[in-house]
Amino acid sequence: MTATTVPPTLARWFDYMDSDDPDRVLGMISDDFVMSVQFSQGAGRCAEFVGDRDGLIGYLAQREKSTLVHHIDVGAVAAEHELVLGRTTRAGEFEASFNASAQLNVDSKVRRLLIARTPEVAFTQ
Predict the structure, then answer these.
(1) Which residues of 46-85 are buried (b: 16+ CB within 10 A; e: fewer)?
(2) Of 3, 30, 44, 73, which residue is most buried, by most CB within 10 angstroms?
(3) Which residues pair with 37 in a beta bridge?
(4) What CATH class is the domain 1-49+59-95+112-125?
(5) Which residue from 123, 103, 117 is spatially nearest to 35, judged by alpha carbons?
(6) Strand partners, 113
(7) Global pTM?
């Protein structure tokens, strides 16, 4: 695959996550939504946030709001799947790399979401 695009649903997801009102992502999920967020803080310290809508609500409750900025560096859309590789910054400085994969339903709602992030690996541009 050589074409790169900004997947529209994941772009909106991360725009919402970076805002003062990240709870807007709750309107983007399907009734059968399932997620896993693998969150590494580095040096082997990590947590996994899993579940359905309630799991996402719990994840949102513990997040810092309007602190990190997600930058999508590479993206692809394949049928009902969107994938991205990106990085987060804090005050303009690199904090972590992330991958995100989403499967959408026929209404373009997120059915499945898998996100992994780590400060240990930076993809240089």
Answers:
(1) eeebeeeeebbeebeeeeeeeebbbebeebbbeeeebbbe
(2) 30
(3) 49, 115
(4) alpha beta
(5) 103
(6) 35, 102
(7) 0.92
Question: Three-class SS of residue 7?
Answer: coil
Give per-residue pLDDT as tens, 44-102.
899 999 999 999 999 999 988 878 999 999 999 999 999 999 999 999 999 999 999 99
Whose structure tokens read 């909106």? 12
For residue 92, the one-letter residue type is G
Per-residue pLDDT band at 3 (split at 50, 70, 90): low
pLDDT over 70 (residue 1): no
Per DSSP, which regions of the chain are E strands? Answer: 29-42, 45-51, 68-78, 81-90, 93-104, 110-118
